[in-house]
């Protein structure tokens, strides 16, 4: 990726501004961590983040207008008209009791155990750095050369309900706000304890799986445990359903495509000496192949129904479609990786996971890139002991900056906006999820 002198100076200015913002962002991270809010109740978190963002803007800067979206979310635009680059920060926490023991641990029955406090603070640091450089350019009478938007408008997407359904990202896309702001690219970053600090996974193509939830209800005939021949046992049928469903992975899915069937809960009966009438189970279906997703779901229903029938029972399957496969744009991924390497980061393109993230929704309407940033912590994601160090705030901010700069430097900047993607989807007969 070639960088001219003017753009190189702008990037240098942005990086310096970002470094100056990090200490305040670390303090914000600790404050957000101490007072988390679960999905659907993120209002106080949103207001605190907006307060940190709005304080940087003098009256001379265009905007910023805050638009409320998805109930407890908002977007804020930094810069003038035209195509923009968007970054996402997740507002919600998980309902769990924290066990880190730090002075700023949460005590309200919720916890940022997935790193959303770090992500939000990093987004604020980046946004403030971009705002300050644009303010400086306005005051000094500088502007980007025609056709070379080295500091294009930035749309900050403060998204609720990443950890629950209905998806916050789905509602953001459905609101039309990305289309109105002509989003050219969407950039996100997530802390990842599977990677060492100083390493970033910047992987092209599919990086997270689709995730669809199911509820299976098997109905039989109840009776005394001593007379099984007079019953139709839904527990036995459910046990065989669980075993048979795993063969979807081993004998129906392409072995080169990661696919997972998980039964997370199984419930039946109230007495040890009675055969119950009903057994229920819940779980998820995951695949890294968008094309296999629907076939997998249909096969699952068929296997469940046929297996239960073979034991004299009936089965009902309720499927709730969740997040699609998260696919990183290859060109944006390559250019961001190049920038990261140039600034001393160890970059890998091998990390993929059958985890799911509603960030995938943004990839359906714009170029998108989700990166994973290594952090030093013994506890894993969603653990009550998960606590990345304060240095992770600056690390995630630097990674987001690389994605922003790569999107801005792309020779295709502005060519692939939400309007174009939506219109293309309509022509192909594939409506965007709303």
Automatic annotation (TrEMBL):
One of its GO terms (biological process) is diaminopimelate biosynthetic process. Residues 213-310 form the Peptidase M20 dimerisation domain. Pfam families: M20_dimer, Peptidase_M20. Mn(2+) binds at residues 114, 116, 163, 190, 382. InterPro entries: Amidohydrolase, Bact_exopeptidase_dim_dom, Peptidase_M20, Peptidase_M20_dimer. The Mn(2+) ion enhances activity. Gene3D superfamilies: 3.30.70.360, Zn peptidases. Keywords: Hydrolase, Manganese, Metal-binding. One of its GO terms (molecular function) is metal ion binding. Its cofactor is Mn(2+). Signal peptide: none annotated. This is Amidohydrolase.
């Amino acid at each position: 990726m070639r960088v001219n002198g003017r753009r190189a100076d702008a990037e240098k200015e942005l990086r310096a501004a970002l470094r100056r913002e990090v200490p305040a962002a670390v303090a914000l991270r600790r404050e957000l961590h101490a007072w988390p809010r679960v999905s659907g109740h993120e209002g106080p978190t949103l207001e605190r983040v907006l307060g940190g963002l709005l304080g940087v803007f003098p009256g001379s800067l265009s905007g910023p207008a805050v638009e409320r979206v998805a109930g407890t979310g908002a977007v804020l635009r930094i810069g003038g008209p035209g195509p923009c680059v968007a970054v996402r920060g997740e507002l919600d926490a998980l309902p769990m009791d924290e066990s880190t023991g730090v002075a700023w641990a949460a005590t309200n029955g919720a916890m940022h155990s997935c790193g959303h406090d770090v992500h939000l603070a990093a987004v604020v640091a980046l946004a403030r750095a971009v705002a300050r450089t644009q303010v400086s350019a306005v005051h000094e009478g500088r502007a980007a050369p025609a056709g070379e938007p080295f500091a294009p408008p930035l749309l900050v997407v403060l998204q609720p309900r990443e950890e629950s359904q209905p998806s916050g990202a789905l509602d953001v896309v459905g609101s039309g706000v990305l289309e109105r702001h002509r989003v050219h690219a969407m950039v996100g970053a997530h802390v990842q304890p599977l990677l060492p600090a100083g390493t970033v996974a910047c992987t092209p193509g599919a990086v997270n799986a689709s995730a669809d939830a199911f509820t299976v209800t098997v109905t039989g005939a109840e009776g005394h445990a001593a007379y099984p021949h007079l019953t139709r046992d839904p527990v036995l049928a459910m046990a065989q359903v669980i075993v048979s469903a795993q063969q979807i992975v081993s004998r129906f899915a392409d072995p080169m495509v990661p696919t997972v069937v998980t039964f997370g809960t199984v419930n039946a009966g109230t007495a040890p000496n009675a055969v119950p009438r009903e057994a229920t189970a819940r779980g998820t279906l995951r695949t890294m192949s968008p094309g296999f997703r629907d076939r997998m779901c249909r096969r699952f229903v068929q296997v469940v129904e046929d297996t239960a029938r073979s034991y004299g029972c009936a089965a009902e399957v309720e499927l709730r479609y969740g997040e699609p496969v998260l696919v990183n744009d290859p060109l944006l991924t390559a250019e961001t990786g190049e920038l990261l390497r140039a600034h001393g980061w160890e970059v890998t393109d091998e990390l993929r996971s059958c985890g799911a993230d509603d960030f995938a929704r943004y990839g359906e309407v714009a170029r998108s890139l989700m990166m994973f940033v290594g952090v030093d912590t013994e506890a894993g994601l969603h653990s009550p002991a998960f606590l990345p160090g304060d240095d992770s705030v600056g690390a995630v901010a630097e990674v987001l900056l690389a994605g922003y700069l790569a999107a801005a430097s792309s020779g295709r900047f502005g060519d692939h906006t939400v309007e174009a993607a939506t219109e293309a989807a309509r022509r192909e007969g594939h409506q965007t999820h709303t």
